[in-house]
Amino acid sequence: MSMWKMSDALRHQIYKYAKLPQTGVSLRQMVQFGPRPSPGTLFHASYFAVHELPIRLSHRVRELENLPLGLSEDPSIRLVRDWYAQSFEELMSVEEPELSDEFRDMLLKNKKDDFMWEGEDSNVKRNYNRNSFVFEDDGVIIRKSNRHDEDSFAEIENSAEPDLFLNCDNNVNSTENEEFEKPLGLKTYFQHAPNDIIYPKEVTDYNKLVTNILVKIKKRHDATVATLARGVQNWKQKNNYKYLNSPINQFLDRFYMSRIGIRMLIGQTITINQQSQKNMQNDDYVGIICLHCNIKEIIRDAIDAARFACEEHFDVMEVPKVKLYCPSDLTFRYVPGHLVHMLFETLKNSLRATIEHHSKLNPGIDLDDIKYPPIKIIVAKGDEDITIKISDEGGGIPRSAVPLIWTYFYTSAEKQIKEDDLQDFHNSHKVPFMGLGVGLPHSRLYARYFSGDLKLISMEGYGTDVYLHLNRLSSSTEPLQ
């Protein structure tokens, strides 16, 4: 357990900030940075993050301290609360940079900015170095992809690139904001600053300082899903609850959705700064957002990762194959890491269910000798959505259990996760292959973050179809309330 302890003075400050409403950040604001933002533009983003993140963190600390039915007293829940409070304290300790009035006014003055970088709305697709962008979050790690044989993939045509927008959790009434106002420059995440001037050293030093602090904070919170899971599981077992009640599920939905938003803001701020500092600019990426996200490429990455995890878990040489039917040129603006996460979780479920179901149908036969039906992934482009359908023949789910799959810590896996597995998950941040009961509801939150959705239809005795809807019509200029 952490030796850090929250003081009464810090708690008072946190509760004071928890009265402030959050500031929404649209996807358009995030992509307006372009691949080569100026130090001044990065400064404004860093400054925004330093002053906005404590507000978001304070909301979570307050909620973690006021959970119903004694859940707040669980040691793992208190540890997560301390991580959020400690991160709040570190951000509040960042010293304001000393700038001349001229630079301060230029970098932080609130103003409407319709700046558009060249190519922002371009339909031109560019090749990009996929190896330079590694997704690593919540235990899912995607690096260089290893392709399956092309024979296992069928192709169709067409492309698309919708606008999307970011989710923001404004669940605090703005009338509560009477004690103090937000600092200067907090109305927008993006504000254009010229590239053709020499910025003082204080600007670049501040950008590096904020980047280093955010990297440290992001790493601290890597184990949040595991630790929160352990706390709720312990509380659930202690109170002999078979399923979680509605208030706890609602809390977990709010908490995990907020965590996605916090990590989106942290990850974007870190990456745009690192890409600039290390001269890693890429015309297809603005931070962690890919402007022309190729769905087929990302699905293949998720297939490789899920099949490898399945092979490792079941200790077999060959797991069910996956057939992909997708346009080769279907692209749109999205965060590849989010899409990988959703696909990885749903594919894991399909692979596991297929192996377990067909091992029952073939008793006494070694898993490597069973001929499994393939899992099929079909991608279609509509006027409103890009839809990804994942179909398996894994035996399906009983109709009475379908509502339960969207509750946390319910799992249809035959082997439930053990306390030792949760401890290993906490130590390594590696997601257990099955039995945690977070994957589907968490993935649905990722889909809904950009106004999409995740739905499931089951045929008990045969298999399951999962539909991942990615919204194509949402406004990129309006934050989700």
From TrEMBL:
Membrane spanning residue stretches: none
GO BP field: regulation of glucose metabolic process
Main location: mitochondrion
GO molecular function: ATP binding; pyruvate dehydrogenase (acetyl-transferring) kinase activity
GO cellular component: mitochondrial matrix
Domain Histidine kinase: 339-474
Keywords: ATP-binding, Kinase, Mitochondrion, Nucleotide-binding, Transferase
Compartments (UniProt record): Mitochondrion matrix
Highest taxon of source: Eukaryota
EC nos: 2.7.11.-
Catalytic activities: L-seryl-[pyruvate dehydrogenase E1 alpha subunit] + ATP = O-phospho-L-seryl-[pyruvate dehydrogenase E1 alpha subunit] + ADP + H(+)
Catalytic EC class: transferase
Pfam families, alphabetized: BCDHK_Adom3, HATPase_c
PANTHER family on file: [PYRUVATE DEHYDROGENASE (ACETYL-TRANSFERRING)] KINASE, MITOCHONDRIAL, PYRUVATE DEHYDROGENASE KINASE
Similarity annotation: Belongs to the PDK/BCKDK protein kinase family.
Name of the molecule in the record: Protein-serine/threonine kinase
